[in-house]
Amino acid sequence: MVKWSRFNIASIVFGFAFLYLPIVLLVIFSFNESKLVTVWAGFSTKWYVQLLHNQALLDAAWVTVRVGLISATVATVLGTLAALAMTRYTRFRGRMLFSGMIYAPLVMPEVITGLSMLLLFVAIGFDRGFWTLTLAHITFTMCFVAVVVQSRLLSFDRSIEEAAMDLGATPVATFLQVTLPVIAPAVFSGWVLAFTLSLDDLVISNFTSGPGATTLPMKIYSQVRLGVTPEINAVCTILIGIVAMGVLIASVVSRRREVQRVKDEQAAFAL
Amino acid sequence: MSKFGSAIFNRLVIIIPYAWLTIFFLAPFFIVLRISLSETAIAMPPYLPVFNLADGISGLVDKLGELSVANYVFLAGDALYTNAYISSLKIAVISTIATLLIAYPIAYGMAKAPTTVRATLLMLVILPFWTSFLIRVYAWIAILKPEGLLNQLLLTLGVIDEPLIILNTNWAIYIGIVYSYLPFMVLPIYSSLEKMDHSLTEAALDLGCTPIRAFWRVTFPLSMPGVIAGCMLVFIPAVGEFVIPDLLGGSETLMIGKTLWNEFNANRDWPVSAAVATILLLILVVPIMFFQHAQAKADGEGR
């Protein structure tokens, strides 16, 4: 084994410092007494207290959470189906187009996705608002779910499915009782990913939402344009906290599942 | 019954997501194309003529006659748009190369790390990806400002005598893109380096290669799939980036994503923004297909 050199360690330390320092500074300055975000003037939580009285911001947060919950859930169902279609049915008409529609949204500039979806809603006469926003979020997040679930399905041992089928289970029963429990951690992390992507999105939301459906990123963006304030830092810190917690829970759940799976397998072999 | 049920299940698995993506992802592009060929109007929606199914086939033929390439002629004639496309491509290329140069050593270090810490390192690379893009870009404003944290630090250390002007220049955009897209570059490179058979490098070393030569002749070529995937993941979205040039760039910064946004939101010129989007899509179609191909191949190998 080639050894872990000083150069390797230095590049990792430098890289992680680069990745984390800006976020850490942002969090620190959300607790700044002064209105300036570059000069430290003592610890204070007043910006957080101020947030609680900002009704417009709280409304935006509520819209964001609702859109996130609905769109992540629908996107997880659609994305899981898409992943199944991609891995189980290698030959069907239009498969190339299908995989193109799964991968393209991952890299497609958001201004294009946003604009095109808006023009669709206008063309079919669908008033812009909460539901157009949700539909747009489902569409772009389901592809991320599909990719996450697909990578799990590729390493899936299909013989247990075949065993279930041989024993007389219907495809639906096989899917629900055999496949789904195995891929559940991937489906769950797909959901968390879809939720956070929906929570974050600014560009697509700006195109597809209408009056009365302002999301938190849209609100933050309009305030950021006016300047950097500790209040925005405080909102951002809360969002970072929520996401970090979600990721932590997701990783603990999937690790526990993994341990359980290994145990089950060992038990099965012991029989 | 069971046969019948299974056939329906199999079909639904494909049809439901297929139909969804066709309606909400593919069909809108045709509408964009359609509207890019129509004329601007002061109305709601602000374009003419409106595609109308009620007109039937003959109506459709009539409408086809009204299609106009005026928006494209307008785009080609206005240097602002041409410059915006060129400058977006230039910024995206420079940022992609810079991201690669920074990400590779990190991915390489991670792949060589002891197995016990690898999972943690991987987690640490993925984590920023989950935090809001907008927030991560916003965090840099306070750092790069003339009276910001970076300048304060450099002035205190005596490295510089007067504040560097970074915010609202292209430098800030490069930093923003490299920072935001770094995990997208690190992850694919890491996964291709991790899969690599280390005995190949050892063989090269045993046969008398210097470590540097062994890296360039063995390790780097073997990591090419990861490098290509990473570059596509950074380059394609970077070309159409809006948030970074808008928040970190200056008034003279031209990027097509920002131009499109302004055309749409400020000028409310939908046909022209649709034309801008169509051309951007045409520019990106080759890299996107390249990415899809590479991705599908990588998934095929994972079998």
Q: Span between N and C termini of chain A? A: 37 Å
Mean pLDDT of chain A: 86
- Indicate the low-confidence ranges of chain B by residue numbers: none
CATH superfamily of chain A: MetI-like
- Helix fraction of chain B, binned, reads over 70%
Helicity level of chain A: over 70%
Largest sheet of chain B: 2 strands, antiparallel
Strand order of the largest sheet of chain B: 1-2
Task: Please describe the biggest sheet of chain A, giving its number of strands, its sense, and whether it closes into a barrel.
Answer: none
Order of helices and strands of chain B: HEEHHHHHHHHHHHHH
Low-pLDDT runs of chain A: none
| N/C terminus separation of chain B | 32 Å
Structural class of chain B: mainly alpha
> What is the CATH class designation of the domain at 80-257 and 288-301 in chain B?
Mainly Alpha
How would you portray this structure in words?
The complex is a heterodimer of chains A (271) and B (303). The mean pLDDT of chain A is 86. By secondary structure, chain A is mainly alpha-helical. Chain A is built from eleven helices and no strands. Chain A has a single domain (55-270), classed as MetI-like fold (Orthogonal Bundle). Chain A starts with 5 loop residues before the first helix and ends with a helix. Chain B has 303 residues and is mostly helical. Chain B has a domain at 80-257 and 288-301: MetI-like fold (Orthogonal Bundle). Chain B has helices at 2-36, 56-66, 70-77, 79-112, 115-130, 133-144, 149-157, 170-195, 198-206, 211-222, 224-239, 243-248, 256-265, 270-301; strands at 39-40, 47-48. Chain B has a two-stranded antiparallel sheet with strand order 1-2. Chain B is globular, with a radius of gyration of 25 Å. Chain B starts with a helix and ends with a helix. The model of chain B has no long low-confidence stretch (mean pLDDT 84). At the A-B interface, helix 1, helix 3, helix 4, helix 5 and helix 6 of A face helix 1, helix 4, helix 5, helix 6 and helix 8 of B.
